[in-house]
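Risk register update: the risk of archive-format incompatibility is retired. Evidence:
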Amino acid sequence: MISAAVNLFRGARVGFVLAREGALALADPTELPPHLRLALRIGRSLERPGLDDGAARLSAAMTRLGPSYVKFGQFLATRPDIVGMRAAFDLEKLQDRVPPFPQEVALRTVEMALGKPVGQLFVSFSEPIAAASIAQVHKAIVQDPDGTQRALAVKVMRPGVRERFMRDLEVMRFMARVVHALSPQAERLRPREVVEILARSVLMEMDFRLEAAAASELAENTKNDPDFRVPKPEWELTAREVLSAEWIDGTRLHSAADLIAAGHDPQTIGRTVIQSFLRQAIRDGFFHADMHQGNLLVDAEGRLVAVDFGIMGRLGPHERRFLAEILLGFILRDYHRVAKVHFEAGYVPAHHSVEDFAQAIRAIGEPIHQRRADEISMAKVLTLLFDVTALFDMSTRTELVMLQKTMVVVEGVARSLDPRLDMWTTAEPVVRAWIARNMGPVGRAQSGLEALRVVSDVVGDIPDLAMRLKRVLVRLDETGTGDARRLERFARNERYRAIWSTLALWGIAIGALVMAFRGS
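Archived output:
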C-alpha cells in the first residue's frame, strides 16, 4: 500500500512535468474516451507559456525528468508507433550527456570490480573523455607480456545508477498499469510490455559483461565481412561495472568532408552502412540497434567499425524470412505477396482480406517507385505502415518496430554521406542472397533435415514418456485399482496413438526431404 502511494506520487510528478513542458500536445484527443479527453484538457491547461510547437516538447520533458527518463526517451525513439514519427525523430536527438563523476571514484570502482590496484592493471589511465547517465569512458594503456603496449577504451559504471533506474522503472510499471486500466484499447500498443522490454534492456546495459558478450557475438557473426568489424572485448579487464575493449582510432561519420579528408569514399561508406545492418538483421538475426553517427567510425583500412553494444536487436527465423520477403516484395512491386506474407506470419487477423491488405500496401509502395531515389522518405513509408497496422488490427510486433526504426536511422546516416543513395537498390543484393540461400534448394534441404531431427527427438522421448506413465500408474494402483485400470487403458490407447502419430511424422518428414532434393 505504501509502495503504491509512493509510486502514485512519483507518477503524478512525471505527469505534471509532461504537462508543464507541453508533451501532452502530442496526444490525439479524438482517439481517447471521454474521461481521458477531460484529463488531457486539464493537463494541457498546465502548459508553460511560450512553448515551441512540435515534438521537442517531449524531449524537453524527458531531459527535465532526469537520466532514467532520458534513457526511456531514447528507447521510445525506437517506438514511433506509440509516440509518432515526429516525436521519435526528436527523441533520437536526446543527449545522454551528464557531467563526469570524479576520477578517484572511477579508479575505486575499477579496483573493486577487477580486484587489483589500477597501477597493476594499466600502464596509464586517463581522465574521463566522455560521460553519460550510466557510465563514462576512459582511455587506458595496457602492456602485454611481450612488452607490447595497447590502448583500450574502459567504460566505468556511474555509482548508484542501478538503484536509481530500478526505482524509476517501478514508477514506469505503475504508470503502464494505470494507462491499461484507464484505456484498455491502448493494450494494442502494449504499454506494459514496452516497459518490461525497457527494463530488460536497461538491466543488460548495466551489466557490462553482457555488453561485451554482445560485441563478441556480433564480431563472430561478421568475422568474414571484409567491410565491417567490431572492437575486441578485453575479457580479463571486464566485469559487471567495468568494460574494457580495443581502442579504435578512426573517423566518425558526422561529416562526409571529414571522411574525404581521411581518404575515404562517403558513397561507399553509405552503402556499407546499409548492407552491414541488413546482413546483421536478415542473415544473422542479431543486429546493432543504435547505429547512429556517434556509434560508427571508419578505420584506416576503410572498414566500418561499430561501438557501444548496449542496445541490440534479435530476430527469429520467421521474422527474418518475413523481413526478407517484405523488402523483396517492395523492390519487385509484388504487393500481393507482401500482404500474403503478413497473413502467413499471423500478424494480420485471418478475418481480413488479403486483397484489401494488398491494396493498402500498394498505397505505400507505389509512391516509392514514382520518385527519384533521393526523394523517397523512409519516415513517410513507416508512418503509412503504422497506419495500415492499426487499420487491419495488426498487433504491434516490438522486435519489428525496433528493426524498422533502426532502418530509418541507418538510412539517415547513409543519406548524410550520399544524398542520392537508393536504399532499395542497395538492399537488394543482401535480400536476394539470403532468399537464394535459405529459400532455394539448399535451404529446402536443410529444412527437411531439421524436420527429421525434430521427429527423431520426439521418437527418442517416447521411452522416457512411457516410463513416467508407468510410474504414475503404479502410484495410482496403490490408491485405487478401478481408477488405475481406467487410466492404464487410457495410457495404452495414447501410447498406440503416439506411435502411429510418430510414424506419420516420419513419413511426412521423409516426403518433405525427398521433395526438397527433387526440387533441387
